[in-house]
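Database export, one record per block. Field names are fixed; values are copied verbatim from the stored entry.
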Amino acid sequence: MAFQKEEIDRYVFHRDHRASFRLNHNHWMIKELCGYLLHPKIQYDKSNVRVADIGTGTGIWALELANELSSSARIDGFDISPGQFTPQAWCGNNVHLLTHDAFKPFPTEYLGQYDIVHIRFFCQVANDEDAEPLLKNLITLLKPGGYLMWFEPLFYAGRTVVADPSTSAVAAESLVKLMQNPKPTSSYTWVEQLPISFSKNGLHLESYEKIPIPDRYRLIRSQSILATLEDLTGDATVDRGVKPEEARKFVDALDAEFAQGVSVDLPYFCVVGRKEA
């Protein structure tokens, strides 16, 4: 499937082995934080369930879920680029990684076919005006009675935490401000409003919860932030008007603060809705 340049440009990160390592690292961290791959409110038949994973990346979430299901279940992972896909030969018979832009209508053969649709980390590629059309597009994939599970960071809830009040947190405070105002033409308001959007578009709200970062994971979370910023210190940062050497200096300053017990506290948000049966 061919894509236009502006579609590919939605994704601001690289797609090399370092970026894939970061995605997998974040996946395992989040699984530990939540204690689940699928929210406990989601009821399903492990032997016959069909699942769509939107923005699948390396396919790690789909692959780990498949390990919990029977071989007769099927998981389809969709991403705009196959650049980070796990080779199909390593995916088993019930995981299929497919190329598709989630902002575009899905082919007819996928409509109304899924018991569960899972999506996460679209805050960097969806603007306020994109979120509801994206939601409507995802709902078209659901069977009657199917579930949509959406997972995002809560940037507006971000704050700096320090183990020792005397420790400097200048770089971390700057990062919090940057996270809360990253784009001149959009915001993260749509993330906060996901429960309202679910209900507005006919989904019964099953759960919405904030997932905090416990102290034992603060350094791990900080390392994830550093890896994310380093992924942006190449061409993507230049395109934003930030010189690579300035970005490198900022990352080094954050690294030094994190090593002294400074943390950027950024909770996550999980929303689960169910389509009418």
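Remark 1: Confidence is low (pLDDT under 50) at residues 1-9.
Remark 2: Residues 104 and 276 are 23 Å apart (CA to CA).
End of record.
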